[in-house]
Amino acid sequence: MATWSVWRMARVAASIFVLMVASYYLVVAFDNITNPVNPNGSNWPFVQGVISGDGVPANSGFGWRFIDATWFHATGYPGVIAGESITGILLLIAGVSGLRSSRTCPRWGASQKWTYAGGIVGLAVFFFGFMVVGGNWFIMYLNSKWNGLEPAFQNAVMTMLMLVFVTGVLIGGHLVHERAESKTQ
């Protein structure tokens, strides 16, 4: 019977966490694809409202930044869905390959390239796309109708926590692995 070290259990736990984050991104993408006009279940109204400045006070001084062209909104929205979908797929690959390779630290570590790739795309969507571009360039923080900064922040933090957890398990497991190898030499 195989022994389950603390580090193997940590690798399994980290892989399961990655799968949970993957499922979140995939459900969000699915909701955006299957119900694009629902203001409570989709990012389409947010993309339109934020980019056009709908809900920002007229005297804010930022009116010159807003874009009312529907074609521009329709270009940005699929980009959001693509980012969410790619993140979810990369993290799904990461979680499954992490579970499959959890037996040894080096194999598990090699499989985590997918976690980092998915995490970077997820941060590009929610940190850069929603918080930097939407939140600050299109002044979402002043928007009384379309302010998605809190969920964007939650998503960015969730993604960062996943990356920190995986990195901690990776470094800790690697150090223990190196120490065990040096004792056998």
Summarize the structure.
The chain is mainly alpha-helical and 185 residues long. Helices cover 74% and strands 0% of the residues. Helix 1 runs antiparallel to helix 3 (70-100) and helix 1 (6-34) packs antiparallel against helix 6.
State the helix count.
Answer: 6
Number of DSSP strands? 0
| Fraction in beta strands | under 5%
What pattern of helices and strands is seen along the backbone? HHHHHH
Major β-sheet annotation: none
Shape descriptor: elongated
Q: Average pLDDT across residues? A: 90
Count structural domains: 1
Distance between the termini: 26 Å
Class inferred from helices and paired strands:
mainly alpha
Radius of gyration: 20 Å
Stretches with pLDDT under 50, minimum 5 residues = none
Please give the share of residues in helix. over 70%
Question: Which terms summarize this structure?
Answer:
single chain; 185 residues; mainly alpha; elongated
Care to describe what's here?
Helix 3 (70-100) packs antiparallel against helix 4 (105-111). 74% of the residues lie in helices and 0% in strands. The mean pLDDT is 90. It has helices spanning 6-34, 44-52, 70-100, 105-111, 113-137, 149-184. The chain has one domain (15-55, 63-184). The protein is an all-alpha fold and 185 residues long.
